[in-house]
Amino acid sequence: MHLDKKRFINRGTEKENQMTIQKHYEVEVDSIPDCNLCNDHQLAVYDCKTKQGPWGNLCEKHFSIFGVGLGLGKGRKLIIKGKS
Protein backbone atom coordinates (compact mmCIF):
# COMPACT_ATOMS: atom_id res chain seq x y z
CA MET A 1 0.00 0.00 0.00
CA HIS A 2 1.45 3.36 -1.01
CA LEU A 3 0.82 6.19 1.46
CA ASP A 4 1.43 9.78 0.46
CA LYS A 5 3.01 10.64 3.82
CA LYS A 6 4.21 14.05 2.61
CA ARG A 7 0.59 15.26 2.82
CA PHE A 8 0.58 14.60 6.56
CA ILE A 9 3.96 16.02 7.63
CA ASN A 10 3.81 18.86 10.18
CA ARG A 11 0.04 18.64 10.62
CA GLY A 12 -0.10 17.71 14.30
CA THR A 13 1.39 15.13 16.58
CA GLU A 14 2.62 11.77 15.32
CA LYS A 15 -0.47 10.10 16.83
CA GLU A 16 -2.79 12.60 15.11
CA ASN A 17 -0.96 12.04 11.81
CA GLN A 18 -1.33 8.26 12.14
CA MET A 19 -5.04 8.60 12.95
CA THR A 20 -5.53 10.78 9.86
CA ILE A 21 -3.74 8.25 7.66
CA GLN A 22 -5.77 5.38 9.13
CA LYS A 23 -9.04 7.29 8.69
CA HIS A 24 -8.43 7.73 4.97
CA TYR A 25 -6.96 4.29 4.24
CA GLU A 26 -8.91 1.91 6.50
CA VAL A 27 -12.52 1.39 7.55
CA GLU A 28 -13.84 -0.72 10.43
CA VAL A 29 -16.67 -3.12 9.60
CA ASP A 30 -18.72 -5.63 11.61
CA SER A 31 -18.01 -8.44 9.15
CA ILE A 32 -15.95 -8.88 6.00
CA PRO A 33 -18.10 -9.30 2.86
CA ASP A 34 -17.31 -11.59 -0.06
CA CYS A 35 -15.42 -10.20 -3.04
CA ASN A 36 -17.92 -8.94 -5.62
CA LEU A 37 -15.90 -10.48 -8.47
CA CYS A 38 -14.95 -13.93 -7.11
CA ASN A 39 -17.15 -16.93 -7.79
CA ASP A 40 -15.67 -18.92 -4.88
CA HIS A 41 -16.75 -16.68 -1.95
CA GLN A 42 -13.28 -15.23 -1.40
CA LEU A 43 -13.36 -12.60 1.37
CA ALA A 44 -12.92 -8.99 0.32
CA VAL A 45 -9.96 -6.98 1.61
CA TYR A 46 -10.88 -3.57 0.16
CA ASP A 47 -13.92 -1.35 -0.42
CA CYS A 48 -12.74 0.60 -3.43
CA LYS A 49 -13.40 2.27 -6.75
CA THR A 50 -12.59 0.15 -9.79
CA LYS A 51 -10.93 1.19 -13.04
CA GLN A 52 -14.33 0.66 -14.68
CA GLY A 53 -15.91 3.28 -12.36
CA PRO A 54 -18.22 1.50 -9.90
CA TRP A 55 -17.20 0.79 -6.32
CA GLY A 56 -17.06 -2.72 -4.91
CA ASN A 57 -15.67 -5.05 -2.29
CA LEU A 58 -12.57 -6.70 -3.75
CA CYS A 59 -10.15 -9.42 -2.68
CA GLU A 60 -6.39 -8.82 -2.92
CA LYS A 61 -6.18 -10.42 -6.40
CA HIS A 62 -8.99 -8.37 -7.92
CA PHE A 63 -7.83 -5.17 -6.20
CA SER A 64 -4.41 -5.53 -7.85
CA ILE A 65 -6.12 -5.90 -11.25
CA PHE A 66 -9.11 -3.54 -11.02
CA GLY A 67 -8.53 -1.23 -8.02
CA VAL A 68 -7.41 2.38 -8.43
CA GLY A 69 -5.60 2.66 -5.09
CA LEU A 70 -6.34 3.69 -1.53
CA GLY A 71 -7.23 7.06 -0.04
CA LEU A 72 -9.95 9.65 -0.38
CA GLY A 73 -12.07 8.96 -3.45
CA LYS A 74 -10.21 5.70 -4.18
CA GLY A 75 -10.78 3.09 -1.50
CA ARG A 76 -10.07 1.76 1.96
CA LYS A 77 -8.88 -1.48 3.49
CA LEU A 78 -11.57 -3.38 5.43
CA ILE A 79 -10.74 -4.02 9.10
CA ILE A 80 -12.91 -5.98 11.57
CA LYS A 81 -14.00 -3.71 14.45
CA GLY A 82 -11.68 -4.03 17.43
CA LYS A 83 -8.82 -5.60 15.41
CA SER A 84 -7.17 -2.45 14.01
Structural notes for this entry:
By secondary structure, this protein is an alpha+beta fold. The protein has one domain (5-80). Helices cover 23% and strands 21% of the residues. It contains 2 helices and 4 strands. The chain has helices spanning 14-25, 60-66, and strands at residues 26-29, 46-49, 55-58, 75-80. Strands 1-4-2-3 form a 4-stranded mixed β-sheet. It starts with 13 loop residues before the first helix and ends with a strand. The model has no long low-confidence stretch (mean pLDDT 84).
Spans of at least 5 consecutive residues whose pLDDT stays below 50 are none
Strand content: 15-25%
**Distance between termini?**
16 Å
Number of strands: 4
Number of domains: 1
Main sheet record:
4 strands, mixed
Order of helices and strands: HEEEHE
- Specify the overall morphology: flat
Which class of secondary structure composition applies to the elements? alpha+beta
Strand order of the largest sheet: 1-4-2-3
Cα gyration radius (Å):
14 Å
Mean pLDDT: 84
Number of helices: 2
Question: Which features would summarize this protein structure in a list?
Answer:
single chain; 84 residues
Overview in brief:
The chain is of the alpha+beta class and 84 residues long. It contains 2 helices and 4 strands, in the order H-E-E-E-H-E.
